[in-house]
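Table S4 entry, Protein phosphatase CheZ.
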Amino acid sequence: MSSPNEAAMIQPDTRARLGSIARELHEGLRTLGADTELHRVMQEIPNARERLDHVSRMTENAANKVLSLVESAKPEFDSVTSRGRELSEALARLSTSPDISVERARAMMKLCGDYLSKSSDFMEKQNSVLTQIMMAQDFQDLSGQVIKKVIDIITRTEEQLVMVLVDTAPEKIEVKAEAGSTEDLQGPQVPDKALKQDDVDDLLASLGF
C-alpha cells in the first residue's frame, strides 16, 4: 500500500491518465451492456462475504457444541464402562466360587441392579446428547444454500468478465477466441451447461492473458 508521501508524488498527468482509463472502461462496459449485470454482481459480493462469515460462525458454533457435548459425556461413559468391567469380573469369580452363600448372591444381585439402574440413566442422558448433536448439524441445509449462492455470484462475475474480454478483443485474435466455444458462458447454470474452467483458461490464453 502506498504511503501518503508516495501518493502525493503521483504526477497530475498520471492521475489524469488513470481517470481517463477508468472512464473509458466504464463507458465501454455501458456500451457493451455489461455494466448493469456487473454492477448487480458487485452489489451482491459484500452480502456474499457476510453470508460466508455467517456460515463460518455457524460451523464453528456447531463444532464447539459437539465437542463440548462429547467432552461432558466422556467421563460418565468411562465410569460406566469401568464399572461394568468390574461387575463382569466379580460375576465371573462368583460363578467359579465353591461357596456361594445366599448373602453373597443377594449382594451381587444388588450390585447388578444398581449398575443396570445407573446404566439406564446414562443411556437416557446419552440419548439427549445424541439429539443435541443431531440438532447442532441443522446449519448444513442453510449453509449449503448460502455456499451455492456465493458460487453463483462468483460464476456470474467470471462469466461477465470473460465476455467483456471476448467482446473487446482485437480483430486479429477474435477468430482464436471464437474457436473456443462461448456457448457455455451463456444461459442458466445447469450441470451440462456450466462454465468449464478449461474453456475459460483456453479462452483467456487466446486473448493474450
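The chain is about 80% helix and 0% strand.
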